[in-house]
Each structure stands twice: as C-alpha cells, then as structure tokens.
Amino acid sequence: MAPVRPRKENVFTKDGKPLVAKVPHYNGDYMPFTIRKAVELLGGLDKTMKPGDTVILKPNFNCSFATPLSTDLAYLAAVIELLQDYGVKVKVAEMCGRADWPTEKVVQNLEVLPVLKRYGVPFICLFEDEWVEVDINGKYWQKIHVPRTMYEADHRIYCANMRTHSAGRYSCTIKLGVGWLHPDDREIMHSDRTKSESMIAEINLAFQPDLVFVDGRRSTIEWAGRGPYVHPNVVMASGDIVAADSEAVKILRTYPAENRIQIPFDEIMQITTAAMHKLGSTDYTVVEAPGHQRTEEDDNRDPATLAVKGLK
Predict the structure, then answer these.
(1) Confidence label for 298 from pLDDT (cuts 50, 70 and 90)
(2) 3-class DSSP state for residue 82?
(3) Phi, psi angle pair for 82, to nearest 5°
(4) Rounded distance, CA 11 to CA 197, Å?
(5) Would you tell me which of 80, 184, 239, 295 could form a disulfide with 12, CB atoms 3.0–4.6 Å apart?
(6) How many whole angstroms separate alpha carbon 93 and alpha carbon 58?
C-alpha cells in the first residue's frame, strides 16, 4: 500500500492567507488573456514550477454534455497555451463518470483529441492506467485506489467548472478528484449519500494540485445540477481547493433557486471536511481584476449614455 504524497504547500498566498484570483469574462472576451490575468494576480507560475517540468492537467470530461458539465475546450486550450508558453510539458489525463462510460466515447463526443493534437499534448485515459492503493487514513476512507499517473505527478493543475449537483450539493475543484477514483471505490462512495460529500473531500488526501482554475462563465443552480443556466461571467484561479470552492459556492448562492447549497456554510461537507483535514482554508483573500472591455451592461449603467437616451 502506498503512502499519501507529501502535501504541497500553497505558494499563492498573501499575509498568510490563500489567494483566489477572479477575472470577469464576458462573451467575446479572449480566454487566453483571462487565464493569464488570473495567474498574474496570483503571482505567476514561477512560484510553483520551472520551465522543462511536466504538468498533468486534469479537466472534467465527466460526460458528453457541454459546459458546465464538461470542461470547455477553449478554456482548456487557453490553459495549455499558458503552460506551453512558460515552457513546461503538458499531458491531459481524465476518466469519465459511470453514467457515460467509456471515457473514449466521451472524449470523442466532446471532440477533445483534435484540440490536444493541435498542441501536441498526449491524452491519458486514467481507466487504463496502473492503479495504486493509497493509505489515506481518513475518517470515511482508510484506503482508495488512484491512477499511478496522477499519484506520481510532480505538478497537477485542475480545470474545473462550478455548478450545483444533486449528490455533492455542488461541483468544483474538490469534486474533481472523483475523476481519478477507481470505479469500485466510486460505487462505495455513492452507496451512502449521507457520507458521500465528506468522502469526496477525503479523496484529495492522496495528493493535491499546485494550481486550480475554475470556469464560472456559465453555471447551473437547480437541485439536479442541470439547466436552466446562469452566467456569473467569471474565471478564477487559486492554489487552494477549499478557498476556490468556497468562493464558487458563494457566487452560486447569489442566484435564488431550489438546490442543496442554501444551508449554513459549515454544513456544506465537501468544504468543511476538506478544511478539517487542512487541505485548504475558508479564510482567504480575493484579488479581482476589472473587466478588460466595456460591455452592453456597463453601457446601460453609464450616466452619459442614459442622458443621451433621454433616460436621465
């Protein structure tokens, strides 16, 4: 049985608190600029890696449906460009959810491989990887089985979405770990819904990411985690999965809906359990960039525009 990987220190902090970078992104904005601005707000990739390193990039290709159920390809491509321009070697690794097996079908349906081919990035199907039994010694898990590629990676970067979810209450960076959990362990996790949120959090005891991105341009807020859509129009980045998820949930809670996140924050067990295990902190600092282009919404609030239209 393998031990947990040494816990990575979050290097993206200020005054002892983790940073969460928030960059507004509206339809028509250029995604590579948004991704680069988010990393710039955190302090740059130099803090956590160096040119020549290899990075395992973990998206969310859980099923064949579009964002926010799966990682948007333009968003994924922007992260790949950022990393390749910095000089690191990128590999993308994923395994889909049990409702839409197999991963190869999902990747084909989402047309992922042509994008990766364009950048010369290999795809690793984690289901076909060698499995490592890891002793995480959690409250709800004693051991889990994870792919060797993810376990042995020197650098991991996650590309998450944010939305509500029927079983997990919400889905963001903490829940991304379900995508490398062995299918038999997933069945165990889903067998007792009263514990599944905490079990999701404890998966991350095996290893942690250097950096996470959150695509919050389009989200869902209903109980089942499906439409209708809302549009928070934001992309976030952080070195802390608890801080990133906390900010994502705060954003989702601003939209009134019948869902499972309108409860006291300390009862959202993905976040509470992860914080209990010191996988991150709910005490964080948000660094936010202004929108880099004027929008129609801004125009409608501009006193000068309103005067011209005779509305003021």
Answers:
(1) low
(2) helix
(3) -55, -50
(4) 27
(5) 239
(6) 5
Round to whole Å and give the CA distance between 257 and 10: 34
Show the beta-strand stretches assigned E in the chain. Answer: 2-3, 13-14, 17-24, 54-58, 89-94, 123-125, 131-135, 143-147, 155-161, 163-165, 169-171, 211-216, 219-220, 229-230, 234-238, 285-288
Length of the chain: 312
- Six-digit token pair at 163? 């939305």
Give residue 146's Cα distance to chain centre: 18
What is the chain's Cα-based Rg? 19
Q: What are 128-161's pLDDT values in tens digits?
A: 999 999 999 999 999 999 999 999 999 999 999 9
pTM above 0.85, yes or no: yes
Q: Is 137 left (phi over 0), alpha (psi -120 to 50) or beta?
A: left
User: CA–CA distance from 253 to each of 40, 164, 195, 281, 284 (Å)?
Assistant: 27, 10, 23, 19, 18
Give the CA distances from residue 54 to residues 38, 91, 92, 150, 235, in Å, rounded to whole numbers and listed in that order: 21, 8, 11, 12, 24
